[in-house]
Structures are given as C-alpha cells and as structure tokens.
Specification:
Elements lengths: L40 H17 L5 H15 L2 H10 L7 H8 L10 H12 L7 E4 L5 E2 L3 E8 L5 E7 L3 H19 L10 H16 L1 H16 L3 E2 L12 E5 L4 E2 H10 L1 H10 L4 H19 L2 E2 L7 E3 L5 E3 L5 E2 L3 H15 L3 H11 L8 H19 L14 H12 L6 H20 L5 H23 L3 H17 L11 H29 L13 H26 L5
Parallel strand pairs: 5-10
Antiparallel strand pairs: 1-3, 2-3, 3-4, 4-6, 7-9, 8-11, 9-10
Helix pairs in contact: 1-2, 2-3, 2-4, 3-4, 3-7, 6-7, 9-10, 11-16, 11-17, 12-13, 13-14, 14-15, 18-20, 19-20
Length: about 575
C-alpha cells in the first residue's frame, strides 16, 4: 500500500535511492509476545554469566571464540547488556583484537512485539485514536531493537511518509532492574585486582547516563532538532522530527528511503554484483563517500565537540549522489574540553610525525603516571605510535586485517596498561567513536590512505579554526570585561595567593598595567584623530576603511572601561 508514496518524501528527489533489496527478499522479522521482567531474572543473569565465564576462562578456545561467547551472552540479555558489551569493546588496551572485534559486532537481535501493543502505546502517547493521526500504518515493523521498533506510516494531515519509533513494552522496567544487577556485579568484580584497570565505576555511570537518555525519547527529539541544523551544515542529512506528535515513548520522524551501511557491508560480501549495479544506478562513488564520512566525523568530534554518539553501520544511511544520512540520534557525544585539547594536540603531533610530542600529550591525559617510570613509558608509547602509523600506511592489506589510523590510540593505551595505568575515560569515548566508523569507512574504500586523508583534513581544519577565531572577536570585549571583573573579585578575596593587595607583586603589576593603559589611550586618540582628518596622520592607516576604524574605537573604549576599573580596584587598599 506504500508503493505510491514517491511524491510524499521530504528529502529532495535527487537524493532518494532505489532499494538494494526488495521487501520479499529479506527474512521476515519474528513477532513474539512481550512479558514483564521475571522475579528470577537476577538468578538467570548470574547463571548465564558464570556459565559463560567458565567456558571462556577454563576452556581451550581462541580469543575470537571467547568474543563470540560473550557476544552471545550480551545479545541474549539485550537492553543495557548490549551497551555493557559495547563499552567493553572500547577496551582494546586490555583485550585482544580478535576478542574486541566480536564485541564490536554487537546488535540487538530481539523479536518484534505484536501490533496490538504498538497500537495501544501509540494511542496512549497521542491521546487519540491512531486513525485520527495516520491515514496508513504498516502493521509489520521495518526494524527492531532492544528498546523500540520502527513502523512505516503516513500522516493524515499532509500525506507525508513517516517513521514511527515505538518503545518496547516493559522497557523501562527491564532497564531499571538490569541496572541494579549490573551495579551489584561490578561491585563484586571490583574486589579483584585484575579488574582495577577496567574502570568499572566510570563504566557504570556511563550506563546510567545512557539509561536516562535512551529510555526517554524526548531526549532524542531534542537531539534530532539540533543535529539537523548542525550536521546539515556539513552536508549530512538528518530526518525531520514531528515534535508535537512525539513523546516519552514515541518518536514520529521523516522516513528516509536509503540503504544502511550494515546492508551495504553484507551485500559487498555476499552479492557484489547486485551492489555494483545499485551503486551505478544511484550515482554513488564509495571511495568519495568513505573520505567524506571520515573527515566529517573528525570535524564533528575534534572541532565542534558535538558528534553522533553511536555511528555503527546501522545508523549510517547511503543516499544517492554520494550523500549520507545519520539516524537514531538517541545519544550525542560531547567531550570535556581538557581531554579534547590533549587529543587534538596529540593527533596534530602525529600528523606532523612528531611522535615524542604526541607521547607527551598522552602522559598529560593519563592519570597517576609514576614519575620514576615516565621516561620508559614515554619511549614505549613513541614506539607504539610509530608502529601503528607504519601499519596504517599499508593500503593493500586484506580488509579483515586492516589497521586503521585510529589504532594508534589503541596501541598507546595498551602500553599504558602494561604499567597498570588506565587512560582517561573521556579519551576512551573518543576512541570508541572513531573505531565505530572504521568498518564503514574501510568497506567503502578498502585501499584508503588514512595518512593522506588526515593531511587533507588538517589543512581544511586550520582555515575553519581561523574563521571561527575571527568571528569570536565580536564577543571579545564582553569576555574581557567578564574575565577582568572575575579576576578583580578573586584578588579582593585573596583567592590568588598574594601576600597582600598592596604588596610588591601587586605594585609592579599595577605599574605595568598603568603604562599599558596610557599606551592604549594614545592609540585610541590616534584612531579618533584619523577619523576626523582628511589626510592620514599615519601612512599605514590611509587605506583603512573608516568603518573599521569606528569598530576599533568602540571595542577599545569598551575594553578601556573594564581595564580602568580593574586598575582602580587593584590600587584600593584592602579593608581589614
């Protein structure tokens, strides 16, 4: 009944793709009744945990086989346990690559819940009958995950095609109970020294934050609205959301007819002929898309500090004419400024082949580095980075064994682990973001030269930073006044460790600031005089447009006001 919807898309026609697979070619999703969490769930979880632990700890199995066992454990439990496995996959410094590669594949393989539950939840959320909002509603879901499933529908008021994301019954109850179990399990594991480096407390709080964001769909609505504007500036498409129709358990958004990267990867492996025909028909050049995706996520994470928190292949959609879309915005990533600054400078140094400097920034970001081992740790890190960059330059490597540019950070963390040191948790989140997109980038362009891509990105990024710095000059006077006001208050409260407000240090500082004040006044008088004169007082100012002189004069006067106030407060004797 949806075949006549070609003219009801919101996305431009030139970016719409034809389907890679027809509907009947894909296996049907299983539908199963949903029941609430059992009172025996705690017993079931611990029994499954120790059973898996026994088989992987004492059985003679490879690291890959261990990864498969634990992936099965997390997928069986679903929900937050999927997130636990994904967080463990970040710890490539502690586990073998074959093991973490299996955990990276974690997906929520759960059956769909019946349409009767869907209808009930939708109508309760909307506060009205489903037929009063949707003219058509496909009872068969197009996708399902541990927290929700998605249905195609058509709005009654404008005929637009939409995706309706409906929260799974008892999802909140399951997550609450599982969070308690995870807390108890982590407290138990913390008693063993071998789990010290896993930073279980940080992992738990990360899970708690995920629970808060992902169980309430209103957070996703906010993310969709902001991401559409911010990612749209990069040329990345984000679906339009219908805020008035969305709620805590329901999200109504634009339906995008594209092909996910997960389907692309499967087709590349199982049916390359079909995939090549589809790419040609939709005018898609995979190498170009791969480069764009890689540099785009670098820009999001390293420049703007606002990035998609879960860019696994199922959340990246290929559109026609080399465009991409991001879906499932339940989680947005933000890194604290200090960690981000260290990471930027580390990668800037790596890009310039200054591996010693990169090692220094690594040590700055790692907590509790023992001084007596700093030199040895630093040299070990340098060797690790150099080896990673050498392996990353091998473009002819088999795709399953490809070493990416981002693995340098992993190798650094492995070296830290040898000295019983854990990396900064914020750093781990950044690394996870980059490693998550690697399968998509490498499958789009198996021979991608990651070092070359970094050089191109770095050159582009420098100009963007300059543009932002120029734009920030408009806010400079207000920021300077705020900072000077704060500094003067701190001085008055003896927050800075001076012996007295009128001590020698303050007197010297006041003398220097007085000289700067009179120099600034002289400069402003010169600019003002130039404005009222027809001939140039200073030859260099002859060709400067008067509007620039006016702006300089205004900014200078505002600055002078705050500057004079600061000097006045410094010269005042402290009241005892």
């Amino acid at each position: 009944m949806f075949d006549d919807w070609r003219d009801t898309y919101m996305i431009k026609k030139k970016y719409r793709t034809t389907p890679l697979y027809e509907r009947g070619e894909r296996p049907a999703l299983e539908i199963k009744d949903v029941v609430g969490p059992s009172s025996f769930r705690l017993f079931y979880i611990f029994r499954l945990f120790f059973k898996t632990l026994w088989r992987t700890r004492f059985g003679r199995v490879t690291d890959q086989a261990k990864g498969v066992e634990w992936r099965s454990f997390f997928e069986t439990l679903g929900g937050l346990w999927i997130k636990v496995g994904q967080l463990l996959a970040m710890r490539t410094d502690l586990f073998k690559r074959d093991f973490t590669n299996e955990l990276i594949k974690l997906q929520s393989r759960v059956p769909c819940f019946p349409y009767a539950n869907v209808e009930q939840i939708v109508e309760e959320s909307l506060g009205k009958k489903l037929g009063l909002v949707f003219s058509e509603f496909d009872q068969t879901p197009v996708a399902a995950a541990s927290l929700a499933q998605v249905h195609k529908a058509r709005l009654l008021r404008n005929g637009k095609r939409v995706a309706v994301k409906v929260q799974r019954p008892f999802a909140k109850e399951f997550l609450k109970r599982d969070l308690v179990v995870i807390r108890r399990l982590f407290n138990f594991l913390k008693k063993f020294s071998s789990f010290k480096l896993m930073m279980l407390d940080d992992m738990y709080w990360e899970l708690d934050a995920m629970f808060t964001e992902e169980i309430d769909f209103r957070y996703e609505v906010v993310n969709l609205i902001e991401a559409k504007e911010r990612f749209g500036a990069y040329g990345v498409y984000v679906p339009e959301v219908y805020k008035k129709l969305s709620s805590e358990k329901l999200v109504v958004m634009e339906f995008i007819e594209g092909v996910t990267m997960s389907d692309y990867i499967v087709a590349r492996r199982e049916d390359p002929l079909r995939l090549n025909l589809w790419l040609k028909k939709n005018k898609i050049k995979p190498k170009k898309v791969g480069s764009f995706l890689l540099r785009n996520i670098w820009q999001q994470a390293l420049e703007d500090n606002y990035f998609h928190g879960d860019l696994q292949p199922g959340n990246i959609m290929l559109l026609a004419r080399n465009r991409i879309a991001f879906i499932d915005l339940g989680s947005i990533g933000v890194t604290d400024e200090e960690t981000l600054s260290y990471y930027r400078q580390q990668w800037s140094a790596i890009g310039k082949k200054n591996y010693s400097k990169a090692a220094d920034f690594t040590l700055l970001s790692a907590p509790d580095v023992p001084r007596e081992h700093q030199y040895h740790i630093r040299e070990t890190i340098v060797r690790g980075i150099r080896g990673s960059m050498l392996k990353a330059s091998l473009t002819e490597t088999d795709i399953d064994k490809k070493t990416t540019f981002h693995n340098a950070s992993n190798d650094v963390n492995k070296e830290l682990a040898k000295f019983q040191l854990s990396p900064n948790w914020g750093m781990l989140k950044l690394i996870r973001t980059f490693l998550t997109i690697d399968p998509s980038v490498i499958n789009l362009n198996p021979k991608i030269d990651l070092k070359k891509e970094w050089v191109i990105y770095y050159k582009e990024a420098r100009w963007r930073v300059i543009d932002k710095q120029i734009a920030s000059l408009v806010e400079l006077p207000a920021e300077l006044m705020d900072n000077m006001s704060l500094m003067s208050k701190m001085l008055r409260l003896n927050a800075i460790n001076f012996k007295g407000v009128n001590g020698k240090g303050t007197m010297i500082a006041t003398f220097i600031l007085d000289i700067l004040k009179w120099l600034l006044i002289a400069g402003l008088i010169l600019v003002a005089y130039q404005l009222v004169r027809t001939q140039a007082v200073v030859p260099q100012l002859a060709n400067v447009p008067k509007i620039y002189l006016v702006i300089t004069l205004v900014i200078g006067l505002v600055f002078m006001k705050g500057f004079t106030g600061l000097l006045r407060r410094l010269k005042q004797p402290e009241k005892r």
